[in-house]
Write a sequence for this structure.
């Protein structure tokens, strides 16, 4: 169920409609702190922020039969689709694991961004209709791998998957990607600075 992280929510229609999706299975993490700071910054500028915490949602993250068979959407996923339709700007906060997305976030995309909702396929040799066109996205990504190494040695597979093969495929334009790394060797002072940076991002 979507809910504000903290603070008062301004009236609908005043400011941008922002949906934040926190895509980690951990109930307490740096990502949660970054998300809360971003939301506080955005609300201070009059934006409306709603939040989906995937670790609190009740759904099967496995697309059991692919797109060839129907799989009933759980209540939380139906709510998530309504929130995505409501939003003008999507903010994804998640860690990079094994160079890619956490399986919970990947499963969320598998189950929620379905044909007929996020895209409409026209066959193998034709492009898809981008059913979520007109929305923008922003990525707040935590990693243990140093940013430069992730980009130049690993070729940033998680970033390419999110920006190109998921969001862009559905018509969502990524406007900003911010990396917070390396987390494992960071100091408490560095993490507090990242939280302040996330709040500043929300104000922009």
């Amino acid at each position: 169920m979507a809910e504000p992280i903290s603070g008062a929510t301004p009236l609908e229609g005043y400011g941008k409609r922002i949906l934040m999706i926190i895509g980690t299975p951990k109930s307490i993490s740096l990502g949660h702190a970054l998300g809360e700071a971003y939301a506080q910054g955005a609300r201070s500028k009059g934006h409306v922020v709603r939040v989906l915490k995937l670790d609190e949602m009740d759904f099967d993250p496995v697309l059991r039969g692919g797109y060839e068979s129907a799989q009933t959407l759980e209540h939380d996923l139906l709510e998530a689709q309504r929130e995505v339709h409501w939003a003008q700007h999507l903010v994804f906060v998640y860690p990079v694991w094994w160079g890619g997305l956490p399986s919970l976030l990947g499963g969320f995309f598998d189950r929620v961004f379905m044909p007929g909702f996020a895209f409409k396929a026209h066959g193998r040799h034709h492009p898809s209709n981008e059913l979520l066109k007109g929305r923008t996205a922003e990525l707040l990504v935590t990693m243990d791998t140093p940013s430069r190494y992730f980009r130049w040695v690993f070729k940033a597979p998680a970033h390419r998957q999110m920006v190109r093969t998921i969001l862009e495929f559905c018509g969502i334009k990524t406007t900003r990607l911010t990396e917070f790394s390396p987390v494992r060797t960071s100091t408490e002072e560095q993490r507090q600075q990242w939280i302040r940076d996330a709040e500043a991002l929300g104000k922009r």
In short: Residues 188-203 form the longest helix (16 residues).
